[in-house]
Design a protein that fits this description.
Length: 240
């Protein structure tokens, strides 16, 4: 039996998370409930221009009108559509395209659902950094820096137990993020950042003129930080 693609694995993880939380739960996407997030994913699957074309002249109004049709669907209808995947004509029906465009997307949105109730670390750690709330730590203080990248931590009251992300997915996340996403994050934060993931590697992005920091954690945790989910990402941040 062929292995499940990384995007397909994360798609089903997202469906399970949405189903577990129900349609009215909060997410890490500010202002979005789980129903709102399901609408976004279902519309993106079926007609990507509905998500990306709403602000465009001429076609924007039509795209917004069609997007509203997805908003009228029941939560279960949306989940069934997401579970079924993209239409037959969609390029993401090809495994290579699906993995390239959807693995990170579905991973992040799954964590948006599961981590919505995570307490912000900076609320209980003296001295905020101003870099989005991630607190400076010393080596050994972060579970992400020491746990196996594919395993789930035991969890604490402040950092709930994480789901087990397959190692194949972690490898895919690292390959994709280390080339583009981490570069964009360094530019956004105006920092020269070394991203370190034990068992996967390290990569440095950003201008040599910018202040230097390093981030260490599993690939998925680094991606959450890079995507602006700093408060929910289990990473060790160090200044140099």
């Amino acid at each position: 039996m062929p292995r499940t693609s990384t995007a397909a694995a994360e798609r089903q993880a997202l469906v399970r998370a949405l189903r577990e939380k129900g349609p009215t739960a909060d997410t890490l996407c500010e202002g979005w409930t789980t129903h709102d997030l399901a609408v976004h994913v279902a519309a993106r699957d079926a007609r990507p221009h509905l998500v990306f074309g709403q602000e465009l002249p001429v076609v924007g109004a039509k795209a917004l009108e069609q997007y509203h049709q997805f908003e009228q669907m029941s939560f279960e209808q949306l989940l069934d559509r997401i579970a079924d995947g993209v239409p037959s004509w969609h390029p993401a029906r090809t495994r290579a395209v699906d993995d390239a465009v959807n693995t990170v997307e579905f991973f992040v949105h799954t964590e948006d659902v599961l981590r919505a109730d995570v307490r912000v670390a900076s609320e209980i750690t003296p001295g905020e950094t101003g870099d989005g709330g991630t607190a400076d730590v010393e080596p050994g203080e972060s579970d992400a820096a020491s746990d196996d990248a594919g395993s789930a931590g035991a969890g604490t009251a402040l950092q709930p137990r994480r789901r087990r992300v397959p190692e194949e997915v972690q490898r895919r996340l690292w390959r994709q993020a280390s080339r583009t996403l981490f570069l964009a994050a360094a530019r956004k934060h105006r920092r020269r950042i070394t991203f370190i993931s034990p068992g996967h590697g390290s990569v440095t992005h950003g201008s040599s003129k910018d202040p230097m920091i390093s981030l260490e954690g599993a690939p998925g945790e680094l991606i959450l930080w890079a995507f602006g989910r700093e408060d929910a990402a289990d990473v060790a941040l160090r200044r140099h």
